[in-house]
Amino acid sequence: ELAAPLHAADMGDLLEALDADERLKLVTLLGERFDFSALTEVDETVRNEIIDELPSADVARGVEKLDSDDAVFILEDIDAPEREEILAQMPAFERLSLKRSLDFPEDSAGRLMQTDFIAIPPFWTVGQTIDYLRSEDELPDDFYQIYVVNPTYNLQGIVPLDKFLRSKRDVRIGDMMNTNVIEVEATEDQEEAARDFERYDLVEVAVVD
Predict the structure, then answer these.
(1) CA nearest neighbour of 53 among 77, 28, 36
(2) Longest Cα–Cα distance in the chain
(3) Are 75 and 86 in contact (CB under 8 A)?
(4) In a 3-state reduction of DSSP, which class is residue 60?
(5) Considering only CA atoms, which of 104, 105, 5, 116 is closest in space to residue 66?
(6) What DSSP string runs through 2-38?
(7) Going by DSSP bridges, is the β-strand pair 183-185/119-120 parallel, antiparallel, or unpaired?
(8) What are the pLDDT tens digits along the chain (209 aa)?
(9) Helix, strand or coil for residue 139?
(10) φ, ψ (nearest 5 deg) of residue 39
């Protein structure tokens, strides 16, 4: 009861402070209340010890709830046969999305990217977009800009949320989007991508192939 409400970072500290057998007992007691994002906050050895002791079905259920970048972070250190067993027990869309990210080179932007994002066509208005966001259940937990794409999902521009929220409902997205977009290649090394974030003071950036 005391551990269930903890933030993932605090849960990570708690897991690392416990003995190995106590860690597993705690995770087992928490059951579906255990937030697997806590495993991104612990040492790789601790993470692998916990994963190795849990049934693959439990791992699949926990990882499925995570943002894709956190899920990939956990899955990439698991031996391939066990990872495939976990992925096989996930819904098709989540499984294919994670496998696509895992196919990118280690330490690349594609491996680190978040695959959940908001994409809309340029002919929508601000009002249509607001109605879509209100009605759509599967939105990312956190996002800072909206991506404008053509029918083949080529990036056309972005709309920062601050600009979007200040615009009237009848304004067309294509007329307000920023077309001077900084992009990162999916195969680009993570250190190069990090330098782009620092140089251009970015919070979020498009990763493209």
Answers:
(1) 28
(2) 59
(3) yes
(4) helix
(5) 116
(6) -STT--HHHHHHHHHHS-HHHHHHHHHHHGGG--GGG
(7) unpaired
(8) 999 999 999 999 999 999 999 999 999 999 999 999 999 999 999 999 999 999 999 999 999 999 888 999 999 989 999 999 999 999 998 899 899 999 999 999 999 998 889 999 999 999 999 999 999 888 888 899 999 999 999 999 999 999 999 999 999 999 999 999 999 999 999 999 999 999 999 989 999 98
(9) coil
(10) -70, -15
- In degrees, rounded to 5, the angle at the alpha carbon of residue 175 between the alpha carbons of residues 140 and 134 is 30
- In angstroms, the CA 193 to CA 205 distance is 9
pTM over 0.90: no
Q: Are 12 and 38 in contact (CB under 8 A)?
A: yes
Q: Pick from 124, 131, 161: which is nearest to 146 by CA?
A: 161
Distance CA 209, CA 191 (A): 18
142 in the Ramachandran plot: left (φ > 0), alpha (ψ -120 to 50) or beta?
beta
